[in-house]
Write a structure and sequence with these properties.
mainly alpha, 120 residues, two-stranded antiparallel ribbon
Length: 120
């Protein structure tokens, strides 16, 4: 799976939330200053070429929808981060984030309880 640029990922987040939308609806959800219609349209076409998005015709326009699930992309991105920066070690990655975010022992225990609960 290809990696997304920041702009592509921003549009994908909107499409994942909306499930389907035309370009104008995507722009409505974007923060100020709003990008130009042609800019967003171009990025959506790039997402189609990368096989993240597909479309159907509705009237004279198109409705775009994601064909890659958010969870699938998130898992792939986390694995790539872990492999590229932490030699594939989840333990090293977790340790890094704990140090950088100054997690307390209590917070770590809470995280472990959540993981344990999800496994059951």
């Amino acid at each position: 799976m290809k990696q997304l640029t920041k702009a592509e990922e921003e549009i994908m987040q909107i499409l994942w939330d909306l499930k389907e939308a035309n370009v104008a609806s995507v722009i409505e959800r974007m923060p100020e200053p709003k990008p130009a219609y042609n800019t967003v349209s171009t990025i959506v076409r790039i997402l189609e070429n990368k096989e993240f998005v597909d479309h159907r015709q509705e009237g004279k326009g198109y409705i775009y929808f994601p064909i890659v699930e958010k969870e699938t992309y998130s898992n792939q991105s986390m694995n790539q981060l872990m492999n590229n920066y932490f030699n594939g070690s989840f333990k090293s990655m977790l340790s890094f984030f704990m140090r950088k975010n100054d997690l307390s022992t209590r917070e770590l225990e809470s995280i472990l309880k959540e993981i344990d609960k999800d496994e059951k």
